[in-house]
Each structure stands twice: as C-alpha cells, then as structure tokens.
Amino acid sequence: MSESIQTLANPLATGTDYEALAARFRPIFARIAEGAEQRERERILPAEAIGWLKQAGFGAVRVPVEYGGAGASLPQLIQLWIELATADSNLVQALRGHFAFVEDKLNAPPSAHREVWLRRFVAGELVGNGWTEVGAVKIGDVITKVAPSEDGSHWLLNGTKYYSTGSIFADWIDVYAQRSDTGGAVIAAVSTHQDGVQQSDDWDGFGQRTTGSGTSVFQNARVEQEEVIDFAERFRYQTALYQLNLLAVLAGIGKAIERDVAAQVGKRTRIYSHGNAPRVSEDAQILQVVGHISAIAYAVEATVVRSAQPAQAAYEARFGQDAEVERQANIAAEIESAQAQVIVSELVLRAATELFNALGASAASEKIALDRHWRNARTVSSHNPLVYKARIIGDWVTNGTEPPYVWQIGNTPDAEKRAA
C-alpha cells in the first residue's frame, strides 16, 4: 500500500456493485456448503473454510476501496452474510466479532493507528470477541484486568471470557476489560499468537456448535500500548450491528430451509395412501407447505436487509456535522434491528418446524441433519432476549424513550444474599 494513503481525507465505505462483489465469494460459499452437514454431525470446526474466506479478502469487504477493501455498504455486507449463512450459518456468527471491530475502526477518526488496522484487515487478519465474564460475577463488574507492565512499555491482560465467538480462528481478540490503575472500561486488542492466550472449544449449546464460542483465558497476555482504547470511544450503533449479524444468520437459515425442503420434496418417492398425488412433488398440500416456507424466507431476507439501512446511515452521519442527525440515526439503527429481531426469530423458527410437515418421519434422520436448522435458529434467537427487545421498541414507540446502546449480563446484585 502506498505511503500516500495517509494523505487521503477520510474515504467512506458507501457501497459497490453487489453482484460483482458476491461473484468473488459464491464459489467459496458453494465449497463451504458441501461440507456443512458433515461439520454439523461430527462437530468439526470450520477452520479450513475460515481460511478460504481470509485468503479471498472476505474480512475486508467493508474497508474502503482506497485502502484496498471492497467498500461495501452495511446492507451489502448483510446480503453477503445471508449468502454465507445459507451455506453454513456457523461461519457468519464466527465472524461477528471481526466485523464489529472493523466497524469500530471505520468509525474512528483518521490516524496512523487506524490505517495500521485497515492494512491488517486487507492482509486477511481476523479479530475475535471476548466480552462476557464467567463465574460468580455481579452485573456491571469486570474481573478481566489490563495493567501496565513494570517498565511501562506495554500492558498485561489477565482474565477469562466465555462466548468468545470466533476467537479460536482469529489473529486478535477484542477484549472488554478494566484498567487496573484507573478502573476505566477499555477495549484491549490482544494478539492470539502468544503463550498468554489459551482458547478452548467448550461451547456446549445444542445449536451453532462450530462457531468457536468457547472460553478464552488470558494470563499476562501482552497488549501493546496503542491497543488499549477507552470504551467510551466505541462506535455508537455497535449493539445494532451485533444484532444485524444474528439476523443475517437467521435469514440464511431460512433460505437453507427453503433449499432443503424443496430438494427433499423433489426427490421423495414414498407417499401416503391418503395423500393427494402419485408423487410428493405433485401433492398440492405439500406444495403449499413449501410455498409458505419460501414466502417466509423471502420476507425474512427483505426485512433483514432493510433493517441494515439505518446502521449505514449512522455510519455516514458519524462524519457529518450534525450531532442530532447522528443521534437519530443511531436510535433508528437500534430500534429497527430490534423490530426485525422480534419478527424474524418467530418466522424462521416457524419455517424450521414446517419443514417437517412437508416430509415423513425419515426427515428426522441424523444423516441429513435437518434438525440443525431449528436448533441453530433457536440458539441464535436466544441471544439478546426477545421479550426485552419488544419492550424497548414499545417504550420508544409509546413514550419516545431512547433505547440502550450497551447492556451487560451477570449475577443479580443480591445473589450472595439469596444464596445465603
């Protein structure tokens, strides 16, 4: 990359030719889809598939063209995620932390440090996620600490994180921590290529089992001075973006259900004596089920792509001169992603169940792993509880209450009292 890149003002990623962009990755998505069932049955982590995406520059599609990326808008990124999630929903969630970190750097003021990260993304380096504390942690407490080294040349990170999605595949981990000296909340970007970082594939959920969402342990892990950043500087629509990732996962699952039900119905030879046709593929009732699933997949995809537009507006407003416009854009990003979450989760779970109404008991065979669609959709839908999202939407629509942009999970403050 030319050194003159630093003289550029601040090019933004506002969109590109989507079909040309997607054409770069569709052959890879097809290869990924070929091994999806086996990875699901045998719990094989998709390290090879992640490697294909890295080499093809998938992690840099949001980076502006001027820096060597594809310059995709957020709605275009979500479309790509949906296509990838149709092939294997685990991979999109595994890359969730990476794209959030990329978005944070895109929202940061232009600097030499930001350009270092943009070059890393273009080179194929990936970032994982490490935010959730484990154990008996009160809500709001942060046990993971980052402290200055004795000579003050770097920082040392100590702690344990769970739900560290994608970190087992990553070169870096985006860690939420607390400074030992000031108590301030920070983000520490720590390299995984050191002995002080240990990772385990111990996520025990019944769905999304190959996302690498296990435990990360940090023991005096080295963090460079410039990689400890005040959390208050984090981009505002981060929760909306995290949710958009899960929405894309759900939309991809919906399209995979549509694909699989059509394929299974099309080749099914066994019929019921009380059916409506000599072939299942000609049975009007079965075709109605398939059609309904297809309509759900269509509506879900359209909703998810539409819900990404406010986030793109928030990104562009970040560099405008009107604080109120930016605030309203951030509110819209949060509310619309929540609105989509509430309905999309219900629809995809319905499609995952209706799938079996079009097929016989043989569809329950583990060999074809059709149950993975419901299990994966149910697991994804359990993130960011729907009931709270619906309440937040209602409070905004009724009372104009601004939604929360960051939230935490942990033990209730009186947990010790209750235990006693």
TrEMBL record:
<dbReference type="InterPro" id="IPR037069">
    <property type="entry name" value="AcylCoA_DH/ox_N_sf"/>
</dbReference>
<feature type="domain" description="Acyl-CoA oxidase/dehydrogenase middle">
    <location>
        <begin position="144"/>
        <end position="220"/>
    </location>
</feature>
<keyword id="KW-0560">Oxidoreductase</keyword>
<feature type="domain" description="Acyl-CoA dehydrogenase/oxidase N-terminal">
    <location>
        <begin position="30"/>
        <end position="125"/>
    </location>
</feature>
<dbReference type="Pfam" id="PF02771">
    <property type="entry name" value="Acyl-CoA_dh_N"/>
</dbReference>
<dbReference type="InterPro" id="IPR013786">
    <property type="entry name" value="AcylCoA_DH/ox_N"/>
</dbReference>
<dbReference type="InterPro" id="IPR046373">
    <property type="entry name" value="Acyl-CoA_Oxase/DH_mid-dom_sf"/>
</dbReference>
<keyword id="KW-0288">FMN</keyword>
<comment type="similarity">
    <text>Belongs to the DszC flavin monooxygenase family.</text>
</comment>
<dbReference type="InterPro" id="IPR013107">
    <property type="entry name" value="Acyl-CoA_DH_C"/>
</dbReference>
<dbReference type="Pfam" id="PF02770">
    <property type="entry name" value="Acyl-CoA_dh_M"/>
</dbReference>
<keyword id="KW-0285">Flavoprotein</keyword>
<dbReference type="GO" id="GO:0005737">
    <property type="term" value="C:cytoplasm"/>
</dbReference>
<dbReference type="InterPro" id="IPR009100">
    <property type="entry name" value="AcylCoA_DH/oxidase_NM_dom_sf"/>
</dbReference>
<dbReference type="Pfam" id="PF08028">
    <property type="entry name" value="Acyl-CoA_dh_2"/>
</dbReference>
<dbReference type="GO" id="GO:0008470">
    <property type="term" value="F:3-methylbutanoyl-CoA dehydrogenase activity"/>
</dbReference>
<dbReference type="GO" id="GO:0004497">
    <property type="term" value="F:monooxygenase activity"/>
</dbReference>
<keyword id="KW-0547">Nucleotide-binding</keyword>
<keyword id="KW-0503">Monooxygenase</keyword>
<dbReference type="InterPro" id="IPR006091">
    <property type="entry name" value="Acyl-CoA_Oxase/DH_mid-dom"/>
</dbReference>
<dbReference type="GO" id="GO:0006552">
    <property type="term" value="P:L-leucine catabolic process"/>
</dbReference>
<dbReference type="InterPro" id="IPR036250">
    <property type="entry name" value="AcylCo_DH-like_C"/>
</dbReference>
<dbReference type="GO" id="GO:0050660">
    <property type="term" value="F:flavin adenine dinucleotide binding"/>
</dbReference>
<comment type="pathway">
    <text>Sulfur metabolism; dibenzothiophene degradation.</text>
</comment>
<protein>
    <recommendedName>
        <fullName>Dibenzothiophene monooxygenase</fullName>
        <ecNumber>1.14.14.21</ecNumber>
    </recommendedName>
</protein>
<feature type="domain" description="Acyl-CoA dehydrogenase C-terminal">
    <location>
        <begin position="248"/>
        <end position="384"/>
    </location>
</feature>
